[in-house]
Specification:
Elements (H helix, E strand, L loop, with lengths): L1 E5 L2 E4 L4 E8 L7 E7 L6 E7 L5 E3 L7 E6 L4 E6 L8 E8 L6 H4 L4 E2 L3 E6 L1
Parallel strand pairs: 2-11
Antiparallel strand pairs: 1-3, 3-8, 4-5, 4-9, 5-6, 7-8, 9-10, 9-11
């Protein structure tokens, strides 16, 4: 399985972006997929996860209410819609997949697969 993240860019505070993560190869229903981010000088942190087969979702408190995770099975693509962005949301965003149907596993387990990051820069 290979994951390809895209959609990052420069946006003003209060703006929106939608990140995409295209998966090559079949993402089986027993996987959960999600997003992490890493800000300059900080550790990578969990953002959101979705069950590929069951559509369960789980969000970190840091962006809860401002992000929506979704997926399109036909396109083998996962999305992260981010709204009301703040300068502190500036980070490299990574998509990942973990072999678990429990979406909360994404926050505590090491993912099996990682995509390359996509940079999101929020200007004040």
């Amino acid at each position: 399985v290979q994951l390809q993240a895209s959609g990052g860019g420069l946006v003003q505070a209060g703006g929106s972006l939608r990140l995409s993560c295209a998966a090559s190869g079949p993402i089986l229903s027993r996987y959960s997929m999600g997003w992490f981010r890493q800000a300059p000088g900080k550790e990578r942190e969990f953002v959101a996860a979705i069950g590929w087969g069951n559509l369960s979702t789980y969000y970190a408190d840091s962006m809860k209410g401002r992000v929506t995770i979704s997926r399109d099975i036909a396109k083998n693509t996962m999305y992260l819609q981010m709204n009301s962005l703040k300068p502190e949301d500036t980070a490299v965003y990574y998509c990942a997949a973990v072999q678990s149907t429990t979406v909360r596993a994404m926050a505590v387990m090491d993912p099996n697969y990682w995509g390359q990051g996509t940079l999101v820069t929020v200007s004040s």
